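Predict the holo structure. Ligand: pyridoxal-5'-phosphate.
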Amino acid sequence: MRVYADQAATTALGEKAWAAMEPWLRSHFGNPSALYEEGRAAREQVEKSREITARLLGAKPRELYFTSGGTEADNWALRLAAEAGARQGRRHLIVSAIEHHAVLHTARRLEREGFFLTVLPVRENGLVSPEELEKALRPDTALVSVMYANNEVGTIQPVYELGSLCRAHGVLFHTDAVQAAGHLPIDLSGLLADLLSLSAHKFHGPKGIGALYVREGVQPERLLEGGAQERGFRAGTENVAGIAGLAAALEESLLDRERKDRAVRALRDSLEKRLLEIPGSFVNGDRQNRLPGNLSIGFADVEAEALLLYLDMKGIAVSAGAACAAGALEPSHVLTAMGLSAPLARSTLRISLDETNTRADVDYIAEVLPAAVARLRSMAG
Ligand code: PLP
């Protein structure tokens, strides 16, 4: 028996996504840039998928650019906003301290290239404060980047409020919606964001395909030199099957969303309740403003990585809230930014569920984990 409880890392390809993709991998293999029938069919599929995706996000099709995933969309968003700012003499960037490395490392790189960077702290519950953001804004601020929902603790930021604040100050606002897309409402027709990133493999689409939304009026800097694909801004033969899969997966994931969320939330809450009975356990992040399937839970005096490997042997896939950097186990930058000590951050597991998980999955985790924690504690003690 295997229980997959790492849906925030990636998800299995959905049936609808696979059905949408399969023809474009086999029988309909034309290059969308070709002028003959096979090429025209592939072009039509790309543009139809762009229309579907745009409609689901409240965007215009010409505001969406397909990318190789969330990382590329984040890199591109920061770079194009920085360059647009620099053209107007604005060289200050603000990102939150709990961004994904795709945003944080790009921001650090832009800093090395001569931009000024403010890394905005978060509160203990993982939330960015709009007041703190307002204080950090400067006349030369070009961009603010705050993620919609965090990938470790699941905390949902007040992005609509942050977006309108930035709009009022004439500053571009980017949100990394990689964890949010397919799960939380995204309506780009309002004041949400000027730039938004998403990635298909987080909502049962294929890996290696994502999109960047660039609001009309914001000039997209050319990302890749070459052919004229993506209106000349991102060269390279389109990933036709991936694009078809992204649109189909997004459509499918938004169907009946509220019912799915209620079911996932009930599973997560019952698991949380049972795991909190383990002595020395604690939950990270805001308990209200949280993705329905996310549970960031720590067990004092237990190394999360050892726990993860133990659970793996028992057939359970979860994640540790820490990344292994250069052979040393670095505590998660997200948890430490929320004020957690390094030992507590290192004792944190991320369990992430979605509508493909069952009551039996949760029961099994709740059965195995307490014994695993006790076992590791007795070995350490
Ligand atoms: N941003 C967030 C919040 C993520 O969770 C991830 C995925 O791990 C990414 C960006 C990167 O997306 P991708 O794996 O598509 O490059």
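The CA atoms of residues 94 and 211 lie 22 Å apart. Residues 359-380 form the longest helix (22 residues).
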